[in-house]
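Hi everyone,

Forwarding the result from last night's run.
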Amino acid sequence: MRRLRSRTAPASRSVTALTSRTATSAALAAALVLLAGCTNLEGLQSEGRARDVDAPLVLWPGYSPAPPSRNENPAVLVPVPGVPRIPGGSMAAAKPLAVLDADIAAQGRTPPAPSAVRPPALHDLTADGEPDLLMAVNLGPRTSELRVYAVRKTVVTRILVLRGVLAGVELAAGHLAVREPTKDPRYVSVTDYVWDGHEMDLWNLTLDDARTPQTPQAVGGSP
């Protein structure tokens, strides 16, 4: 009589083989997930752990400077003594050199030689429909001084004075932009001033690409 062979052992081997194949497939899938995490469709790869960023160390946190005094504020309004009033409100009616000399003399300084004064420029910075006066004095080979005058209630008034290395002075959209060189010759710092209804307010400080000087254009007014 033929004995029937037990099917238990082969069945056990089949389950073992299936389990082994399942584990292998799972390992391959996990490896693919890890690879997918290291790169995306763009081919970008992780560069490792990001560098720690330390907060700035504040020195003397309890100290704060006092606000600038009247003489330290470049935009303070200063009536120019000894200059005739201008009922019409236009700086085009004033004598530019006379205004400049009177303003500088009132500060106890000697007025500059006419050869050191750049041609005056007339432009409406105060948005009152009347031109204001811009004057620049060359104090040396590099340093210059910019002074801006407007008529306030018929009185000739200085509304801005700046001293520095003036790499350029520009007017755009009611803004007065002063360009000065930085330690990097590729860039200049740009300080924007705009009339806020009461004074020439410091509007913005930015960096801009340095560029070659522009060809000067004729402006109104004469010394």
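Confidence is low (pLDDT under 50) at residues 1-22, 31-35, 215-223.

Cheers,
N.
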